[in-house]
Amino acid sequence: MTKITAAITAIGGYVPDFVLTNAMLEEMVETNDEWIVTRTGIKERRILKEEGKGSSFLGIKAAQNLIEKKGLDPKEIDLLIFATATPDMPRCPHWTLCSLTNRSYQCFCF
């Protein structure tokens, strides 16, 4: 029997430019930085503000980051792991995954 092995050999990432800080939230609702941080650990959030863009856009940017950082040919990517709680469509998260693959690179997705 052949032993199947796998390894994560590279990781790419992307976060949107817009930062929503706790100080900004203090202006919107009755709260403060200390209350938020002690209960959630959150100090800031990155929010995608570009119209018509969703989580698949973030995934594509992360894949592009990986390709540029490692000098990869997109065809060298065997597997893309993408997780989200906010898919582009009101369906299960793998819908975003399929969109990401179809728009960008041909590889297996999980």
From TrEMBL:
The family database entries (SUPFAM superfamilies) matched by this protein are listed as: Thiolase-like
Q: Which GO terms describe its biological process?
A: secondary metabolite biosynthetic process
Keywords, alphabetical: Acyltransferase, Transferase
EC code(s) of this entry: 2.3.1.180
Q: Which domain of life is it from?
A: Bacteria
For the protein in the UniProt heading, the enzyme class is transferase
Any GO MF annotation of the entry: beta-ketoacyl-acyl-carrier-protein synthase III activity
- Please identify the protein, giving its name as recorded: 3-oxoacyl-(Acyl-carrier-protein) synthase 3
Q: Which organism is it from?
A: Capnocytophaga canimorsus
